[in-house]
Amino acid sequence: MQSGITASQELLDAFKELVSNPSQRGIIAGISSESLVHKHTLPALGNFDSDLAQLDDILKDNEPAYVILRRYEPSPSAQADCFVAVTYVPDAANVRQKMLFASTRNTLLRELGTDKFKENIFATMKTELTAEGFQRHDAHEAKPAPLTEEERLLKEVRDLEAEASRGTSARKSHVSSGISFPLSPEAEFALKTLSSATAHNLVQLYIDTEKETLELERCESVNAPSLAQAISDSSPRYSFFVFHHTYEDQESSPIVFIYTCPPSSKIKERMVYASSRSSIISVAENAGLIISKKLEAASPSEITLELLMDEFHPKEQTKTSFSRPKRPGRR
Description:
Elements lengths: L5 E2 L1 H12 L3 E9 L2 E9 L4 H4 L3 H4 L6 E6 L12 E6 L6 H18 L4 E7 L7 H11 L7 H16 L20 H8 L9 E7 L4 E8 L16 E6 L2 E3 L2 E3 L2 E6 L6 H20 L4 E7 L7 H8 L19
Parallel strand pairs: 1-3, 5-6, 12-13
Antiparallel strand pairs: 2-3, 2-4, 4-5, 7-8, 7-9, 9-12, 10-11
């Protein structure tokens, strides 16, 4: 998903000068008035590692930027493929700026020429843009095969999803910190009344990226076998479901948090939802919900009655016992 922003002529000229002038180490670019603009030029004062020290005074702790650096010797077949593009999006930046820079970086690379770049890196801290930071990056990457831009973006989505959950689809999820969105009044009321409500046992939320809020998708009563049909199969959703059921003559109504993210979802959606699902848990708990299980699935069809029962009442595996052979009798 692209933002519609284009590169200014000033930025194109600055990059052209960088390509042709080895006395320059790199340039800093930003977004202003719906355009990608040139902000700063870095001279080549020494080698790559030592020149990185210039970034500490230029980059801000709460303001995203694009950093383009000359890092490699150009290959004989392509005399300009020696640059690394860094999308620097600090954690302290506001959500709108984070989304804007993330959705525009493909435009930056395309307009400057993707063939000019050997690497495309996403960074959130200035320490990642030091000599030590690049060493850690190189060790982590371990020189993988070159990826297309779409493959790189998909990899980042998967890394982000893996950070918040070490399980696979329809497994229990591990929640970590992430982007936080405020609840709309309707969504807040639905969550606060879920535990005691008799008219509904499902609250489903979605992220309105324009308003930067968590909105109420639906609030209704469904039974477990029909739950999958109540969840979108085309876009990510957060669902809170009161699982009314009976097991061994005991009735119970635990609350289950379910994060679904269909493979057909837009990449930008997957990034936002994956980085926000930890905060929605905290928001719901602050609203008074006691969440017994946290599940995730690629497709709503994976959320079945059998799955829910197995999560709360796992079947005991019967062990096969082997009889010891009888001792031979005495002759």
